[in-house]
Structures are given as C-alpha cells and as structure tokens.
C-alpha cells in the first residue's frame, strides 16, 4: 500500500459553546483501543456520545452511551459509566462493539469488511441530553472521524490463483522471513480477508483461503489435497519460514484444520487454532462430507423469530469413530476457542469429547481450551459488533435463512477481546523462532 498512515489524536471544537471532543487515535488498527473524551461542558451536564458507521453494503450502524459530565465539565468514555444507550457501565470500547443497525434497517445484517485496503470509518459525536433516536435531526456539538484499519502500513496484499488454489496472501512489512498462517472461515463460503490482513499487521504471513462458493451453480467441494496445496504455497513463499506455519479456522474451517493436523502427511502445521468448531464429520479425501455442509438429518429447528438453530445437529456427540476426526493423531499444539452460548455448533460438547479422546491417546498435553460464558458462535477480532443472528446462505441447497449464532453483547465482546490476545500469544509462542522476529506494526 502506498498510503502512509500514522497514529494520531484529534480534537474537534464545536462551533457553538466551545465543547471539545478528543478521539485518540484517529487512525489505528481495528484491535487497537480508542480513547474518547469530551470537555468544556457545564458541570453535571447530560450528554450522549454517539458512533455512526456507513457500511460497504450501504447500511448505517450506530452505538451510543448516556453520560453525565463531572464537576469540571468532562466526560471520559474509558473511565466514566454509561447510564443507558446500546451499552451501560464503564465500557471504553462500547461505542464500537455495541454498534447495531439503525432502526428501520434490513433484517439479518452482519458487519464485515470486504475491502481491507480501505479503512472502516466511524463518526463519533457529542449530543446534548440523553438521546435514543433522532441523531440525524439536529447537529451535534462536536464530531470526530476515526479510521479503523485491518491492514497496517507496509502490509502487502497478493492475489493467489495457482495450482487450483484461490486465496489472498498478506505479507508483513520488512524482509522477513515470517511465520505463516493458513486462515479459513466457515460454511458461509467466499473469500474473507480481514482476519488474515490483521494477522499480517501483527507479523504473520497469512493467507485467507477460499474453499466454498455459494455464488456458483454448484458448491466447491474440495478434498484434503486442496488444503495441503494451500499450506504448501505458504511454505514455499520466500518470505515465510517453511517449518513455522500454523492453521487458524472458524466453524467449518475448524473441521478442516483438525482434519489436516490429524491426517495429512504433506501439511504438518506447527500449531492449530480452532474457533467455534468441532471434530465431527472430518474432511475426506474426496471432499467436504455432505453432513458437514448440510447437517440435514431432521435436528435443525427454528425459534419463535424464525431464526435457524443448528447446534443440535451433532448432538449427542457420536461414539462412532468413523464420524469423528481421530484427534489422538494430532502432534502439534491445539487451541480451542468456544462460547458457551453457541447456537450454531455444539462446540463445548465437542471440546469435551476432543479432550477425552486426546487423553486416551496420550496427547492431551497439546490441548488448550478456552470457553467463554455468554459468548456465541461468531468470535471475531476485538470490538467487532456482536451479531446474535444474521442472514446466511446454506451452501448445498442455496436456501437463504437467518441463522442464530448466539451470545450476549457484553459477554461476547469480552470474549472477542480476550481470545484475540490469547490467539496472538499462542501463535507467537509456537510459530516465532525468536519473540522479536516480527514486531507488531503500528499505525
């Protein structure tokens, strides 16, 4: 990227009343905390801090908190409590993680960044009084625009279309070599780049992999060889340390990661991170098993809001070894990240069975499990807005549904922040040759 960005702070003074709004930094990575503060207000003045985002899908998202200025006329979102709004309490990042579609928006929206070479911009404003609606009807007393980036300065984005593999490679700035990560999302299909871009911003050569496609006439159904080839492409890159490549998968991507780690004689990951997934229904030599894609055995059901719930599809956890990955064969460190309110996969029950199987096989010492109370299925990078249910296309049938993912906003936000920190620590521990090999890029 040719654009130069740096960490900066910004202070805007309103044209009426001299109210100050400070946002620091106005340019930063999406997993970097914001410091939002207002000053020059009257003492004990009720104000609303409001955040507005216009998405790439042309939808508007907002979050807001109700505050009362102190004796000096100041409000600090990181230190003061919100008394109402889309979040309450002392929540320094509540203006981001509690964002939701504005009233009247389409049903089933999910906020995802498609173009990682452009920032996610948010407009943060101060309004007098405790407002819950009508933010567009009157001018705020102060506003600041902040940019949130997935790609740090100097990260290279490279399209991959070779040897039948489709993906996007992100290389950190500098000569390298760097540890590598194969990054895979779940059954929603398509090419999702933003997590891989963020991994590269933290020093990992990461490739986002496309392996399912709901836009084609027939869904892609790649066998284990496809993932082995993708793994080799990462290994063979001149800026990658060939024996320091790991795998990160979410949902169906977890099934792929565990299958490769257990059975592949070609792709030997140094470590695996599996978010919200299961070892049930491994990826076969010939392709993704139909049950892993459809789970259409009569156990799916819908709630009173017509949201599709899949978590019962793999319950009770089967005792048939042929329907499970033999995780006893795994020889690399494995990190499982789950939410105990996951309504899409029976992840907690799967993790318990994985632990039991690995204990019997004698490789339980390789397993670390993180289970977060109140978190749902879509455990993403920090401060991503919590989405309890969203639109989803079932790959094998092309049926459009609203899928229930689960989770409660505050608990889910806490899980995303903590798990991301632990995922980065885990990857650095097992992929870095030296802790200082690839320092984190700063904006």
TrEMBL record:
<dbReference type="InterPro" id="IPR042490">
    <property type="entry name" value="Thio_Ohase/BAAT_N"/>
</dbReference>
<dbReference type="Pfam" id="PF08840">
    <property type="entry name" value="BAAT_C"/>
</dbReference>
<dbReference type="GO" id="GO:0006631">
    <property type="term" value="P:fatty acid metabolic process"/>
</dbReference>
<feature type="active site" description="Charge relay system">
    <location>
        <position position="251"/>
    </location>
</feature>
<dbReference type="InterPro" id="IPR029058">
    <property type="entry name" value="AB_hydrolase_fold"/>
</dbReference>
<dbReference type="GO" id="GO:0047617">
    <property type="term" value="F:fatty acyl-CoA hydrolase activity"/>
</dbReference>
<dbReference type="InterPro" id="IPR016662">
    <property type="entry name" value="Acyl-CoA_thioEstase_long-chain"/>
</dbReference>
<protein>
    <submittedName>
        <fullName>Uncharacterized protein</fullName>
    </submittedName>
</protein>
<dbReference type="InterPro" id="IPR006862">
    <property type="entry name" value="Thio_Ohase/aa_AcTrfase"/>
</dbReference>
<feature type="domain" description="BAAT/Acyl-CoA thioester hydrolase C-terminal">
    <location>
        <begin position="224"/>
        <end position="432"/>
    </location>
</feature>
<feature type="compositionally biased region" description="Low complexity">
    <location>
        <begin position="1"/>
        <end position="16"/>
    </location>
</feature>
<dbReference type="GO" id="GO:0006637">
    <property type="term" value="P:acyl-CoA metabolic process"/>
</dbReference>
<feature type="active site" description="Charge relay system">
    <location>
        <position position="377"/>
    </location>
</feature>
<comment type="similarity">
    <text>Belongs to the C/M/P thioester hydrolase family.</text>
</comment>
<feature type="region of interest" description="Disordered">
    <location>
        <begin position="1"/>
        <end position="20"/>
    </location>
</feature>
<dbReference type="Pfam" id="PF04775">
    <property type="entry name" value="Bile_Hydr_Trans"/>
</dbReference>
<feature type="domain" description="Acyl-CoA thioester hydrolase/bile acid-CoA amino acid N-acetyltransferase">
    <location>
        <begin position="31"/>
        <end position="162"/>
    </location>
</feature>
<dbReference type="InterPro" id="IPR014940">
    <property type="entry name" value="BAAT_C"/>
</dbReference>
<feature type="active site" description="Charge relay system">
    <location>
        <position position="342"/>
    </location>
</feature>
């Amino acid at each position: 990227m040719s654009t130069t960005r740096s960490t900066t702070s910004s202070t805007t003074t309103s044209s009426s009343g001299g109210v100050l709004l400070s946002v620091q930094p106005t340019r930063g990575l999406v997993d970097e905390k914001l410091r939002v503060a207002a000053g020059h207000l009257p003492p004990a003045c009720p104000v609303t801090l409001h955040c507005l985002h216009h998405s790439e899908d042309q939808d508007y998202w907002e979050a807001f908190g109700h505050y009362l200025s102190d004796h000096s006329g100041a409000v600090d979102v990181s230190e003061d409590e919100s008394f109402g709004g889309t979040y309450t309490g002392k929540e320094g990042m509540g203006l981001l993680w509690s964002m939701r579609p504005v009233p009247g928006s389409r049903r089933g929206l999910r906020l995802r960044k498609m173009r990682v070479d452009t920032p996610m911009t948010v407009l943060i404003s101060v309004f007098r009084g405790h407002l819950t609606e009508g933010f567009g009807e009157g001018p705020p007393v102060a506003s600041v625009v902040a940019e949130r980036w997935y790609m740090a300065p100097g990260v290279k984005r490279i399209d991959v279309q070779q040897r039948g593999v489709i993906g996007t490679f992100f290389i950190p700035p500098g000569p390298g070599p760097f540890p590598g990560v194969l990054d895979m999302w779940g059954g929603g299909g398509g090419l999702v780049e933003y997590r891989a871009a963020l991994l590269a911003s933290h020093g990992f050569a990461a490739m986002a992999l496309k392996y399912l496609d709901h836009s084609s006439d027939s869904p892609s159904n790649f066998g284990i060889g496809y993932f082995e080839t993708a793994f080799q492409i990462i290994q063979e890159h001149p800026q990658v340390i060939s024996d320091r490549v790991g795998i990160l998968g979410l949902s169906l991507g977890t099934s792929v990661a565990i299958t490769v780690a257990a059975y592949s004689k070609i792709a030997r990951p140094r470590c695996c991170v599996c978010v919200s997934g299961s070892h049930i229904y491994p990826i076969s030599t010939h392709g993704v098993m139909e049950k892993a894609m459809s789970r259409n055995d009569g156990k799916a059901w819908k709630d009173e809001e017509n949201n599709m719930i899949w978590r019962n599809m793999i319950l009770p956890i089967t005792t048939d070894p042929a329907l499970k990955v033999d995780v006893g064969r795994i020889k690399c460190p494995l990190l499982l990240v789950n939410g105990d309110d996951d309504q899409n996969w029976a992840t907690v029950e799967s993790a318990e069975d994985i632990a039991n199987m690995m204990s019997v096989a004698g490789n339980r010492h390789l397993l670390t499990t993180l289970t977060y109370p109140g978190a749902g299925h879509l455990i993403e990078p920090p401060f991503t807005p919590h989405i309890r249910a969203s639109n989803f296309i079932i790959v094998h049938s092309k049926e459009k549904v609203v899928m229930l993912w689960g989770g409660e906003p505050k608990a889910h936000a806490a899980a995303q922040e903590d798990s991301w920190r632990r995922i980065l620590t885990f990857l650095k521990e097992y992929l870095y040759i030296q802790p200082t090999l690839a320092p984190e890029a700063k904006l």
